[in-house]
Design brief:
Layout (H helix, E strand, L loop, with lengths): L23 H12 L3 H9 L5 H7 L8 H8 L2 H13 L1 H11 L3 H12 L8 E2 H11 L4 H18 L7 E2 L12 H7 L15 H14 L9 E3 L1 E2 L2 H4 L10 E2 H6 L2 E2 L9 E8 L4 E6 L1 H6 L6 H27 L1
Amino acid sequence: MKALVSLMILISTNVKAFDYSDDPELFSQQLMEQHQMSSEQTEKWLSKATVQQSIIDAMNRPAEGKPWYQYRDIFLTQKRIDEGVKFWEKHQKTLSLAEKKYGVPAQLIVAIIGVETFYGKNKGSYSVLDALYTLGFHYPQRGQFFRNELAQYFLLAQQQKWQPDIAKGSYAGAMGYGQFIPSSYLEYAVDFDGDGHIDLINNPVDAIGSVANYFAKHGWQKDQPVIVDAHINNWQASRLASRRTELSYSLDELSKKGVFTSASLDPETKVSLLMFEQPKKHQYQMGLHNFYVISRYNHSPLYSLAAFQLSEEINQANKQSIIGAKGR
């Protein structure tokens, strides 16, 4: 998803990753062999790409490098909350339909779009083609991943009849309101307004439906909790905490090691044990299944917690706005 965070209508092609060559000429041949895409077309598109050092620099300073209390302040602002309420009010019907169809709460959909692009106001200014080309062929740490995304982008451009050098996005090649990378665009984007065209870049209705579909396809459980506080009784237990969102423990296992929660949950509930850095202490929490689902949008637990907390703040502010409107 969005480039500041760590990295994510099928057509007849397969969206699964493929081991694309780091040689542009061989890359073109592989696209022809794997997807019957003209090598002449691929080479023409590649010739329009430019290596951008600023993209590599941006990849080397992700926001997730900040401690939680600083990272949180980037997204949990009054302005972002207020704009989230406005976005909800403007797209209330669409959000209600998405929640009903996919079971994903409207406030989470709003929060994701708020975190990613400030409700569509900042979709990115980088050439998507330049970003994917630069990272695919000139950023060896993640080269294979981004070469695959470049291939998916060319398939997407072919499907959507785009000129690939026109689209703008993040420094990691993510696009639109929800900052979908090309493979996610191909796999999870939906035509939510039924106009026969999928547009996540300019159409907030399709974007809302696609964010909801993304979470639904990753197993969102309707009306289930997301994260609960954890209480640790000894320093040895604190070493169990990590920055991974996989559900590695059961509550029963953790309780035997000195980790507890006041939440009423089945002892067999699978959780992750997470530590979030505060100015003077560490905060421990247990991520549940839905927290893991949020982390499929971006694998950072910082991102997942910020998005969830923003959704809660937007939900409360929206309720107050409705009450205020009724009182007038």
